[in-house]
Predict the structure.
Amino acid sequence: MLRSQFFDDSSVEADATSILLLDRLSFGERVFLSFGGRYKWFDATSKLAFLPAGLPFPDSDDESDEGTFNPSAGLLVKPLPNLSLYASYAESTFSFQNIDQRTVTGEPLAPERSRQYELGVKAELFDGQVFATTSLFQIEKSDVAGADPANRLFFVNRGKERSRGIEFDVAGEPLPGWHLTANYAFIDAEITDDPNGVTTGNRIGGVPEHSGGLFTTYEFQGGPLKGFGGGGGIFVSDRVQADDFGTAELPGWEQADAVLFYRGKHWTAQPNVKNLLDEEFFYAGGGESEFSEVQRAPARTILGSLSFKF
């Protein structure tokens, strides 16, 4: 088998400066409208050279100087003092996202852009001790970087992605000393447009359809055990595609964690155990190349911390 080796020498220098302008209008004490936007100036210089000389890949030396404006708007309605309904819209330009990636002809990729729509409900429970949020969202991305089907060593602005779903979060202290956080998400993540027709309709790699977690701790509030506490939780994930090409699927997983702690007047000691049951499972980095990295989750890990307040 004939093998060849080559190397690349790359460098990137970039900086961004932005101005954020926001305004908020209130209509009585129940309706609030916010709007504004961010203008960003982005300058970058990037160089890429291949070694040894004579390779059939062009070197590149590019400069970019662009200005982008991303608007945002939100509406908040409070029908009750402890209940809020909201809607929001925002655009983003990720100027740093594709800066170090090149096409096979040596041209830089356009920056990734996104639009996000969200509708939700926020509620305060137990006299404001617990906060719960339920939201519907849709995120649309364009100019996403993806592997060039004709040459997997290089990239193209693959096209568009869409993620939509529902999220639920609850966090707070229902009773003195008892802290609780819980969340669940359903995400329908799909590649909606691929100029090369390779991945259109595929699920985005590394994104589970269902995921969530529950973590709770209790700290003794009085008596000889005052300051001692502990707890634990479980985190779960549905199966995922290992990459955007649908070449492999990784099974879902569950991970249990635990924590103990003692809070003194001026110090806190806390050991944590990650992956308490030493489960074996794998993460997928997702997407943009058929060579996407799949990593084994860390085995049972014990971490300790000691902090002081002065």
Q: What stands out?
A: The chain is about 0% helix and 65% strand. The radius of gyration is 24 Å. The chain has one domain: 71-308. The longest strand covers residues 151-175.
